[in-house]
Amino acid sequence: MIQEELQALLESVKGGKLTIERALEMLNRSRGFIDLEDAKPEPSRSARTGIPEIVFCSGKSPEQVAEIFGHLSETEPLVLASRATSEHYRAVQRQLPKAIFHERARLISLGDPRPRGGGPVLVLTAGTSDISVAEEAAVTAELLGNDVWRAFDVGTAGVHRLLALQDKMREARVLIVVAGMDGVLPTVAAGLVDKPIIAVPTSVGYGASFQGLSALLTMLNSCVPGVAVVNIDNGLGAGVLASRISQMNLP
Predict the structure, then answer these.
(1) Residues 211 and 183 both lie in one domain
(2) In a domain, 85, yes or no
(3) 3-state SS record for the chain
(4) Which end of the chain offers a freer environment for a tag, N or C, measured as fewer CB atoms within 10 Å?
């Protein structure tokens, strides 16, 4: 905040036109974040990075999520919250009735999706059990302005299901490949097409899968160069990365 703006703000408080609380809120916004008791949300993050701050709900109470979400919604045209439960959503909806709960993706959104300009992004899963993570990736990419295609349960136990998708795989600009258990689907997909592959290990599997660690290590050790790997169950990160890739060089 420049000196002239600060002086005008103080004069408004002195003249009774502005409350001290409102002036403090404006000062907080001028430094790029809002200083709440339990959080410091950044309403200007999208202007800096192109991606709005995304509220991670796990470990936060419904009331905390609603408070943060509400402050972000005052300036951000699109607000997102990930790993949300129905309790988180109800708390947000009480103060923001237009908020939407994407139940399978465990996402809450408010505002219009960005105009379509990127993609298509193709989201594949090895199994049906991987769909919740895949939906987190798919819905994130859609809200950020990308056309998204989905093809679920095309794992290597029946590789002909994947081979039947080769035309669509070649048409896509980027692929998000979600797999648990042995985690080999991204490697197979990467060996079939010349597209960027974002591999997402999931925590699906029996004991020796170590809650996704086995799939993560398989993907990191892929014999096909150029496979990018995100963290276990991190569909959100995959969706954001796919959006960035699909929208590169667009106006």
Answers:
(1) yes
(2) yes
(3) CCHHHHHHHHHHHHCCCCCHHHHHHHHHHHCCCCCCCCCCCCCCHHHHHCCCCEEECCCCCHHHHHHHHHHHHCCCCCEEEECCCHHHHHHHHHHCCCCEEECCCCEEEECCCCCCCEEEEEEEECCHHHHHHHHHHHHHHHHCCEEEEEECCCCHHHHHHHHCCHHHHHHCCEEEEEECCCCCHHHHHHCCCCCCEEEEECCCCCHHHHHHHHHHHHHHCCCCCCEEECCCCCHHHHHHHHHHHHCCCCC
(4) C
pLDDT tops 60 at residue 251: no
Global pTM reads 0.83
17 inside domain: no
Taking residues 148-160, what's their average pLDDT?
A: 95
